[in-house]
Amino acid sequence: MKLDVLYFAWIRERIGEPREEIETGAETVRDLVSQLVARGERYEAALSEVKSYRVAVDQELVDFDHRLDHAREVAFFPPMTGG
Amino acid sequence: MLIRIQPAPFELAALLDGFGAGAGAIVTFSGIVRDDTGQMVALELEHYPGMTEKSVTAIAEQAQARWNLTDLAVIHRYGRLSVGEAIMCVATAARHRAEAFEAAEYLMDYLKSRAPFWKREIGPDGPGDWVEAKAADEDALNRWD
């Protein structure tokens, strides 16, 4: 399946792109993270420490075990600092 | 209910004109860009277009379901905001002040930790550090369980 993967704040900076299309067979968010981290240094620097960031699937916050069955958009970002 | 996510400044007085008809109490909160270090000239706020509107609307709807509000408004800005500028505001209207105060606090607690905004400090030499989320802000959500 093809997923739109979005990156925000320091994750976007470390990866060097705000978004990209990823072809993946990942079943869960955790699988997708492993696939991305294996792409090399930039991804490792951004995504290897799962405690330091959050993930949303189709614009809803989810945990790393969330299944990607019908997902279209996955976003990775640091803990929010709104308000 | 009014929700606005925008880069432009806003006028609180204009927002309150006609707001909360029939209410006995209106509470407003405004968040202002402050300089804690003496080295900051602005904040840059990044957000997640689409998810921001969805999550702020969901937070506002939860507040409306929980308290008996006659009206509610959230304006949150993004982009580059200078020290002293308003970042955001919430306004709540209810028959009695306790509801209006509590709902405003609830909105603020959730907007801080669940609305997809990220702040970065801009110093005299350009972009500096991303503002880190505080554990205390995350803990603040527990009081609403």
TrEMBL record, chain A:
<dbReference type="InterPro" id="IPR044672">
    <property type="entry name" value="MOCS2A"/>
</dbReference>
<dbReference type="Pfam" id="PF02597">
    <property type="entry name" value="ThiS"/>
</dbReference>
<dbReference type="GO" id="GO:0000166">
    <property type="term" value="F:nucleotide binding"/>
</dbReference>
<keyword id="KW-0547">Nucleotide-binding</keyword>
<comment type="similarity">
    <text>Belongs to the MoaD family.</text>
</comment>
<dbReference type="InterPro" id="IPR012675">
    <property type="entry name" value="Beta-grasp_dom_sf"/>
</dbReference>
<dbReference type="GO" id="GO:0006777">
    <property type="term" value="P:Mo-molybdopterin cofactor biosynthetic process"/>
</dbReference>
<protein>
    <recommendedName>
        <fullName>Molybdopterin synthase sulfur carrier subunit</fullName>
    </recommendedName>
</protein>
<dbReference type="InterPro" id="IPR010038">
    <property type="entry name" value="MoaD_arc-typ"/>
</dbReference>
<dbReference type="GO" id="GO:1990133">
    <property type="term" value="C:molybdopterin adenylyltransferase complex"/>
</dbReference>
<dbReference type="InterPro" id="IPR016155">
    <property type="entry name" value="Mopterin_synth/thiamin_S_b"/>
</dbReference>
<dbReference type="InterPro" id="IPR003749">
    <property type="entry name" value="ThiS/MoaD-like"/>
</dbReference>
TrEMBL record, chain B:
<comment type="function">
    <text>Converts molybdopterin precursor Z into molybdopterin. This requires the incorporation of two sulfur atoms into precursor Z to generate a dithiolene group. The sulfur is provided by MoaD.</text>
</comment>
<comment type="pathway">
    <text>Cofactor biosynthesis; molybdopterin biosynthesis.</text>
</comment>
<dbReference type="InterPro" id="IPR036563">
    <property type="entry name" value="MoaE_sf"/>
</dbReference>
<dbReference type="Pfam" id="PF02391">
    <property type="entry name" value="MoaE"/>
</dbReference>
<keyword id="KW-0501">Molybdenum cofactor biosynthesis</keyword>
<comment type="similarity">
    <text>Belongs to the MoaE family.</text>
</comment>
<dbReference type="GO" id="GO:0006777">
    <property type="term" value="P:Mo-molybdopterin cofactor biosynthetic process"/>
</dbReference>
<protein>
    <recommendedName>
        <fullName>Molybdopterin synthase catalytic subunit</fullName>
        <ecNumber>2.8.1.12</ecNumber>
    </recommendedName>
</protein>
<comment type="subunit">
    <text>Heterotetramer of 2 MoaD subunits and 2 MoaE subunits. Also stable as homodimer. The enzyme changes between these two forms during catalysis.</text>
</comment>
<dbReference type="GO" id="GO:0030366">
    <property type="term" value="F:molybdopterin synthase activity"/>
</dbReference>
<dbReference type="InterPro" id="IPR003448">
    <property type="entry name" value="Mopterin_biosynth_MoaE"/>
</dbReference>
